[in-house]
Amino acid sequence: MRCYVVREEDGAFSRGVEDYEPFARESADLHVRVEYSGVNYKDALVASPSSRVRRVPVLVGGVDAAGVVITSSDPGIAEGTPVCVHGGDLGVGRDGGFAPQVYAPPRLVSVLPASISTRDAMVIGTAGFTAMASVLALEEHGLEPGAEVLVTGATGGVGSLAVAFLHARDYQPVASTGSPQESAWLYERGATRVIGRDDIADRPDRVLASERWAGAIDCVGGETLHHILRSLRYGAGVAASGLVASPDLNTNVYPFITRAVALLGIDAVETSARTRAEVWRQLGEVATRVDFAGLIDSTITLEGLDEALEMIRSGKTRGRIVVDPSED
Ligand SMILES: NC(=O)c1ccc[n+]([C@@H]2O[C@H](COP(=O)([O-])OP(=O)(O)OC[C@H]3O[C@@H](n4cnc5c(N)ncnc54)[C@H](OP(=O)(O)O)[C@@H]3O)[C@@H](O)[C@H]2O)c1
């Protein structure tokens, strides 16, 4: 079948659509017909030469997929059930979602809530799962509706879904973006204010900045995360999931010991079964209040992946790119 395959063998790198048969790694793997996949920043890292993220020399890319179960070893997931597959080593160390079919162990398969179609599941994808996990982590830390919450990288996958989910849960998302031309689009997604990337660097000459944010969702890392920490309100938290600017964090302990702020790490890859189920339950609950169609950058076929991966790598996407891998 036609799949998007990444190869690096004997020093030669290639990626593209080819005839390939994805295979089950374990006897318990569920077999799923893929209706949609999505493009994530991590996919671009996997599909790069000498990738430090990819764990095998040859695989089908795609860290997430949504579709219908063909065969199941799990008594809790019947054949014909609409599911989302993501996390673990999918698309990183085993064949992923850029294919008409995928195999995955039950722990990577979530039954979709009735309110979420397979297409909307891939508008959400790993990025939206991470965004909702971030919202829930902030709520667990004490965030209450009505609060102003900063979202960085706001036009990206994690960022735009975070804006939409915060809006749907009655928060006031403040969207920080390096793409000011997308301000109107961010207001349509639910932002109450749009600010520039540099606007979060308040009072850089002081140890601490003004107390501005009741919470923050950050997928940018580096200097951005440093500035967020020093401008959180007393007792507030930042949910940190990404590193598009930098994996480094040069900061000091003052925000922690004088304002009792919290750095909440978010991981969508090895998240517990309990958290995974709760995030999908909450996504199902919020789905009727989110305009998923408005969050789609474009819908592409496997042939469009080369370009899409370059776009996401260079931060030029807006919302989510959905992939239709069907062979028709
Ligand atoms: N922890 C986890 O389990 C997990 C799960 C999913 C994603 N992630 C991570 O989260 C990050 C975002 O993923 P994504 O799929 O949402 O990517 P994405 O769609 O490319 O979004 C990233 C956004 O960040 C902004 N940006 C890009 N380059 C930047 C730079 N140099 N400095 C500051 N901002 C920059 C851009 O938004 P603006 O133009 O609006 O500023 C861009 O759209 C990645 O690092 C990814 O690996 C982690």
What does this protein look like?
The chain has 328 residues and is an alpha/beta fold. The chain has 2 domains: 2-111 and 293-323, Quinone Oxidoreductase, Chain A, domain 1 (Alpha-Beta Complex), CATH 3.90.180.10; 126-265, Rossmann fold (3-Layer(aba) Sandwich). It has helices at 41-46, 118-140, 157-168, 183-189, 222-231, 254-259, 273-286, 305-313; strands at residues 2-9, 12-19, 30-39, 58-60, 64-71, 82-86, 101-104, 109-111, 148-151, 172-177, 193-196, 213-218, 232-240, 262-265, 296-300, 320-323. The strands form 3 sheets. Strands 3, 5, 6, 7, 8, 15 and 16 form a 7-stranded mixed sheet that branches. The protein has a 6-stranded parallel sheet with strand order 11-10-9-12-13-14, with helices on both faces. A 3-stranded antiparallel sheet has the order 2-1-4, with no helix packed on it. A hairpin with a 2-residue loop joins strand 1 and strand 2. Helix 2 (118-140) packs across helix 7 (273-286). The longest helix is centred in the middle third of the chain and has 23 residues, at 118-140. The mean pLDDT is 96. The site of NADP nicotinamide-adenine-dinucleotide phosphate has 31 residues, from helix 1, helix 2 and helix 3.
